[in-house]
Write a structure and sequence with these properties.
The complex is a heterodimer of chains A (361) and B (427). Chain A is 71% helix and 3% strand. By secondary structure, chain A is an all-alpha fold. Chain A has a single domain, classed as Cytochrome Bc1 Complex, Chain C. In chain A, the strands form two sheets. A two-stranded antiparallel sheet of chain A has the order 1-2. In chain A, helix 4 crosses helix 5 and helix 6 runs antiparallel to helix 9. Chain A is globular and about 65 Å long. Chain B has 427 residues and is an all-alpha fold. Among the domains of chain B are: 46 residues, no CATH class; 124 residues, Butyryl-CoA Dehydrogenase, subunit A, domain 3 (Up-down Bundle), CATH 1.20.140. Chain B is built from 23 helices and no strands. The termini of chain B are far apart. Chains A and B meet through helix 4, helix 5 and helix 11 of A and helix 23 of B.
């Protein structure tokens, strides 16, 4: 039957190019190929987010008076609403974890080097967008924790020099976190960010398909030195894609188990006039930054400490975007230990500060 | 208003403010040689007052000086002239003289209005009606006077946490005399028995002391809340339930309507004690064990014993139900099922239990039973909702197990397929 449909389409659209691409596309087989699957798993979870997000949209009401109650209604009254909400929350967290894993695997394997600068660029922007999804989505249940964490998070944006106050008002839709902020975050979460993300994912995938999988520089150098022959190829369809699907199923099983055994808390409804409860902290993926900003002294050489911290993180973000253009040695196929060390230090910093931030009072 | 008049107005106002008053006591504005000399004396008995007065002292802070209480000439450099009786020097006022010295200002409404407009001015009058005041009038100079509680020098506001009469310090201040058997030896109760000195030790075991010192509840009662402060006297027979009822109003009303109100000499104290008021429990009710009712009531024929046992059983039953339901709801909640309505209902059931315990002070089981029945009905509905939640939880877990099994099968099938395709590719 599938063949019949393909033939029918072929007759009308001439799919010979596509058929040829599918038949010829191969994936190099080597010791590091396991990291290739992280990108596909991240994309799969993005699909889960879109699917569960659309279902949640059917019942969610984005206003400070109704948001909390609507989420409560979803998890208590809507058939399988609890499952959809839990899967949405858990897969969002797994997605960010996998996106970070994908980012570090690409960094360590130097897959950003010429000619894949654009793939890196779209990828790093996607990572920032995923963090944006997490930040905007966190407020939507309008509970106490998310309300005050958003207040702290948007407050940090206010520390950006020159445009800080403008950014704070832009994010909050006013001077404080209110129902207007909720509407704004809702718009960001369900329309603006998904639109940009869809375009970037399409571009990212197109580039990956067009340029093929990157082979680690160490293997390339061994080939050039004649120590290693041409790499064996695995067919993309169906050998590689079936492995990808297998990994997706494993991820799905993990999400389902987490959703059933560790349900996502609803908390208590946000009360803007309540005293800030103790232990307010952002989601785990912002903990390292949050804790670092907390550690910085209030004033350093006449400058505000938080302002300096925010500027430093901004510079780090810009450097990350420009990595393929800065790491000239990797582009020439040479070893670039400086960037490997920097990536390792970045990874250690993120892990250590996230753990300390989690336990710090 | 003319230009000159407008310019002179602040001057006239300032003159009016600092003009000599006709009040009996005035802050001494002149040089104070008392402190200059006394602070250098080797005799600590004479030097300490100067040191204390120079530190935190509300009187000094408000502009008063040594001579305002002790008399004499604070401007004189020689001891003889400074301590001249002709200049009103009266030394350290003790006993009734101290009450008079303090009352000179503190009973003067006009004067006190200037410094503490809200403060009462009847302390001396009240003191005269107190046991302390009466004993003093009878010639017992060992009794407490103003300085015994407030201190003679270094006097702080009552609202100052370091003041000996700040709520958390009152009991220790009273205990300085009342817990000292030697000090209290000469005083006897009306029946001739020695005055007890265990009040402070008993009070320290009480819920009131715990609330005040551990719970930081400054409204929790200490000595003066039941005995009065300046008019300190033990609450008389019949007045006890009024004293307790000041805070425990509902309990007092129920008790007044009960048959025990006519029988109990000491009211609330009969069951709850006076200074060692322990946390009440349902174990106090009943006709067996350590129940306080058992002192008078026992046996199946005793109506009081039956009533006490009935109410005790009802309380235990409702409390056990609330505990059981709470555990069930907690389990279901932990598993992610929304139970805020049930939590609210359980709080309502707990309120019913408290209401029933309050109603018990009327000692009529018939008025307790309907409240307990209401509570039991709530617990029943929460139990039903909890069971439904537990069933939902089992359904979710079973569903997940089936889904995971299906996914696992798919993973295995895919793995086999991948291996088959790989093998075919190699061949």
């Amino acid at each position: 039957m599938v063949k019949g449909v393909v033939d029918w389409l072929d007759e009308r659209l001439d799919l010979s190019d596509l058929k040829h691409f599918i038949a010829e596309k191969g994936v190099p087989i080597h010791t590091q190929e396991v990291w290739y699957y992280l990108g596909g798993m991240t994309m799969f979870l993005f699909g889960v987010q879109v699917f569960t997000g659309i279902l949640l949209l059917l019942y969610y009401r984005p206003s400070s008076a109704e948001a909390y109650e609507s989420v409560q209604f979803i998890v208590t009254q809507v058939k399988f609403g609890w499952l959809i909400r839990n899967v949405h929350s858990w897969s969002a967290n797994l997605l960010i974890a996998l996106a970070f894993a994908h980012f570090f695997s690409v960094f360590f394997l130097k897959s950003y080097r010429k000619p894949r600068e654009l793939t890196w660029l779209t990828g790093i922007l996607l990572l920032f967008l995923m963090l944006g999804f997490g930040f905007s989505g966190y407020l939507l249940p309008w509970n106490e924790l998310s309300f005050f964490a958003t207040k702290v998070g948007t407050g940090s944006a206010g520390a950006v020099p020159v445009v800080g106050h403008f950014m704070l008002r832009l994010l909050r839709s006013g001077d404080d976190v209110t129902g207007a902020t909720l509407s704004r975050f809702y718009g960001l979460h369900v329309a603006i960010l998904p639109a940009i993300t869809t375009a970037l994912v399409a571009g990212h995938l197109l580039l990956v398909q067009r340029q093929g999988m990157s082979v680690p520089p160490g293997i390339e150098r061994a080939q050039k030195a004649g120590k290693l022959g041409p790499l064996a190829q695995m067919k993309f369809f169906p050998n590689y894609i079936l492995r990808d699907v297998l990994a997706w199923y494993v991820v799905l099983a993990i999400v389902a188990a987490l959703a059933a055994f560790y349900p996502w808390e609803l908390g208590t409804k946000a009360d803007p006039f309540a005293v800030v409860p103790p232990g307010i902290r952002p989601e785990w993926y912002f903990l390292a930054v949050f804790y670092t900003l907390k550690l910085i002294p209030s004033h350093i050489m006449g400058f505000e400490g938080e302002q300096l911290g925010v500027v430093a993180f901004g510079i780090v973000a810009i450097v990350l975007v420009l990595v393929p253009f800065l790491d000239r040695r990797a582009s020439r196929g040479e070893r670039s230990p400086v960037f490997t060390v920097l990536a390792a230090l970045g990874l250690v910093y993120l892990v250590v500060f996230t753990i300390i931030g989690h336990y710090a009072k | 208003m003319s230009q000159i008049a407008r310019r002179c107005l602040p001057l006239i106002a300032a003159m009016a403010l600092f003009a000599p008053s006709q009040a009996t006591a005035q802050p001494a504005q002149a040089a104070n040689t008392c402190l200059t000399c006394h602070s250098t004396l080797a005799d600590t008995r004479l030097a300490t007052p100067a040191k204390l007065f120079s530190g935190t002292d509300i009187h000094r802070e408000r502009g008063f000086a040594c001579a305002d209480c002790h008399g004499g000439d604070p401007a004189a450099a020689e001891k003889a002239r400074a301590h001249d009786a002709a200049k009103g020097y009266k030394g350290a006022p003790r006993g009734q003289a101290q009450i008079t010295a303090c009352a000179r200002c503190h009973s003067d409404a006009d004067l006190m209005r200037r410094y503490a407009p809200k403060q009462r001015v009847d302390q001396a009058t009240e003191y005269a009606t107190s046991v302390h005041g009466k004993q003093l009038a009878a010639g017992h100079t060992n009794v407490a006077t103003c300085a015994s509680c407030h201190g003679p020098h270094g006097i702080r506001l009552v609202s100052d946490a370091k003041s000996p009469v700040f709520p958390t310090n009152v009991a220790a201040t009273c205990a300085a005399c009342h817990a000292d058997p030697r000090h209290m030896a000469e005083y006897k109760l009306a029946d001739g028995t020695p005055l007890p000195t265990t009040q402070f030790a008993d009070y320290k075991k009480s819920v009131h002391y715990a609330a005040l010192t551990k719970g930081n509840d400054l409204s929790a009662p200490t000595c003066n809340d039941c005995h009065g402060n300046h008019g300190a006297t033990p609450p008389g027979v019949g007045a006890v339930s009024n004293v307790c009822g000041t805070c425990h109003a509902v309990f007092a009303t129920k008790f007044q309507s009960s048959v025990h109100a006519q029988i109990f000499d000491k009211g609330c104290v009969e069951c709850h004690s006076n200074h060692a008021v322990l946390k009440p429990s349902d174990a106090m009710l009943g006709s067996t064990g350590h129940a306080v009712c058992a002192t008078c009531h026992s046996g199946a024929d005793d109506k009081g014993a039956v009533a006490a046992d009935t109410m005790h059983g009802q309380f235990e039953q409702l409390e056990a139900g609330i505990r059981r339901s709470g555990a069930l709801i907690g389990r279901v909640k932990n598993a992610g099922i929304e139970v805020s309505d049930q939590e609210l209902a359980l709080r309502e059931a707990s309120t019913k239990l408290t209401l029933a315990r309050t109603e018990m002070h009327g000692f009529v089981p018939a008025s307790v039973t309907p409240i307990i029945a209401d509570g039991a009905k709530i617990v029943e509905s929460v139990d039903a909702a909890g069971e439904k939640g537990a069933a939902e939880l089992r359904f979710r877990r079973r569903g997940l197990a089936i889904s995971l099994g299906a996914i696992l099968l798919l993973v295995v099938a895919l793995g086999l397929k991948v291996r088959q395709i790989d093998r075919r590719s190699h061949s």
